[in-house]
Amino acid sequence: MRLYSLSVLYKGDPKVHLLKAAYDVSSFNFFQRSRWVLGLHWGGCCGLGPCCLSDRASLAEYLCHVYVRSDGLVGVVIADNEYPQRVCFTLLDKVLDEFSRQVSKMDWPSGSPATITYSALDGYLSKYQVQTPGP
């Protein structure tokens, strides 16, 4: 069971934009990793079309979990199909609460990964990896 991506976005009017993201593509072929990061980013942003404010959804049956809060803050976890959905939404709730306390709401509409200071995503992505026992 693996987590591949953890993202925080802002669903403004008229579009959604990325505020911060962390990726773990270490399980993919070295030469394909940049494509996977691009795909994970695209999947996280474009998968939000059908979500309304204050919504929780698992959009793809295999790995994309989205939590859209009423304040427009969005969390996206991309995981393999074995990762427990409940854990994904617990993680998203924790990350979005912490993000909203640490990053001013005034910065969300114009923020970008380069301008937002929030460094906890990599730690959460690492902490929530589920290690399967070896043979």
In short:
Pfam families: Longin. The protein has 3 helices and 5 strands; from the N terminus they run E-E-H-E-E-E-H-H. Residues 28-62 have low confidence and may be disordered.
Can you characterise this structure?
The protein is an alpha+beta fold. It has one domain (3-45, 55-128): 2-Layer Sandwich (Beta-Lactamase). It is 29% helix and 26% strand. The chain contains three helices and five strands, in the order ββαβββαα. The protein has helices spanning 33-46, 85-102, 121-127; strands at 3-11, 16-23, 55-60, 64-68, 73-79. A hairpin with a 4-residue loop joins strand 1 (3-11) and strand 2. The protein starts with a strand and ends in an 8-residue tail after the last helix. Mean pLDDT is 76; it is low at 28-62.
Q: What amount of the residues lies in strands? A: 25-35%
Q: If strands are numbered along the chain, what order do they take across the biggest sheet?
A: 2-1-5-4-3
Order of helices and strands: EEHEEEHH
Specify the CATH architecture.
2-Layer Sandwich
Shape call: globular
CATH class: Alpha Beta
Task: State the CATH topology.
Answer: Beta-Lactamase
CATH 4th-level superfamily: Longin domain
Instruction: Please report the number of helical segments.
Output: 3
* Estimated helix fraction: 25-40%
Instruction: Tell how many strands the DSSP assignment holds.
Output: 5
The major sheet is characterized as: 5 strands, antiparallel
Tell me the number of structural domains: 1
**In angstroms, what separates the terminal alpha carbons?**
15 Å
| Secondary-structure class | alpha+beta
User: Mean pLDDT score, rounded?
Assistant: 76
Radius of gyration: 14 Å
GO cellular component, one term: Golgi apparatus
Domain Longin: 61-125
Keywords: Lipoprotein, Membrane, Methylation, Palmitate, Prenylation, Protein transport, Transport
GO molecular function: SNAP receptor activity
